[in-house]
Design goal:
Length: 265
């Protein structure tokens, strides 16, 4: 009797993990990739995928062989979007950033210990970075959006993540050492915006600014990404100013506090 809730919760957790993995890109993911990334056995993954497909939550693409999100997810997303009119609010800011800078602009949300890219607007500069797109997830503190959010979290929350950084950051911990992350967070708090100097992918730089909720906590972030020559020190102040202006605009539209430029203690 006592084991049933645990077993049920475990199944839900596994299903949620598979949905997130499939939802990383529009192309979905192959069975082998899902087995590797989830850490589950192949029979377990196949059984869960088949069950999700029977409910319309997933589809199996006969051409690519990948598992992709199904029509029920689209319907659920349409309903959920009515509660979170983020695209209507954030899209204009992304367009202004992309037009003003020529770089690709993004809007990300914090989900627990991760950031998830929700929206993208391509800039006019012909050479682009393809590290980030809709659905991509990073551990909090990784990439410019995650660093911008983490920098303005309460110090206790930052220290909790840093105390288990290797586990939290996973494969990103090699390039994002604790010392380097601490330095980046301190610089972000000082400047008001974060800079990712090609730590996720060499040569691909990014900058981010946090968007705050009604309690003054960083819950979303705007970011710009591009190639290293476009993010030289002389241009960073200009890009940072544009990012902070649009982040403040969205914060105000969402009814957030937005003026918080130091983490709460």
């Amino acid at each position: 009797m006592n084991s049933m809730p645990v077993q049920g919760a475990q199944v839900v957790s596994r299903i949620a993990a598979l949905l997130r993995l499939v939802g990383r890109s529009a192309e979905g993911m192959a069975l082998a990739g899902l087995v590797k990334e989830s850490g589950l056995t192949r029979p377990t993954v196949h059984r869960l995928l088949s069950s999700l497909a029977s409910e319309g939550l997933l589809d199996h693409d006969a051409v690519s062989g990948n598992w992709v999100l199904g029509p029920e997810i689209l319907l659920m997303g349409s309903v959920a979007s009515a509660r979170f009119p983020l695209e209507d609010i954030a899209r204009p800011s992304l367009r202004r950033l992309a037009e003003a800078t020529g770089e690709s602009a993004f809007f990300s949300i914090r989900r627990g210990s991760e950031t998830v890219c929700l929206l993208r607007e391509e800039g006019s500069f012909p050479v682009r970075s393809f590290v980030l797109h809709e659905g991509v997830r990073f551990p909090l503190g990784i990439a410019s959006a995650g660093a911008a959010i983490m920098a303005f979290l309460p110090e206790a929350e930052q220290e909790e993540l840093l105390a288990r950084w290797a586990e939290h950051a996973g494969s990103f911990a090699v390039s994002h050492t604790v010392e380097r992350v601490r330095a980046n967070l301190a610089q972000a708090r000082l400047a008001g915006y974060s800079v990712n100097p090609g730590l996720v992918l060499e040569g691909s730089w990014g900058m981010g600014a946090a968007v705050f909720d009604t309690s003054g906590r960083p819950a979303w972030a705007l970011s710009l990404t591009g190639i290293e020559p476009r993010f030289k020190p002389g241009r960073q102040a200009e890009l940072g100013s544009l990012l902070m202006a649009e982040a403040h605009r969205i914060t105000q539209q969402l009814g957030g506090a937005g003026e918080k430029r130091r983490p709460a203690r």
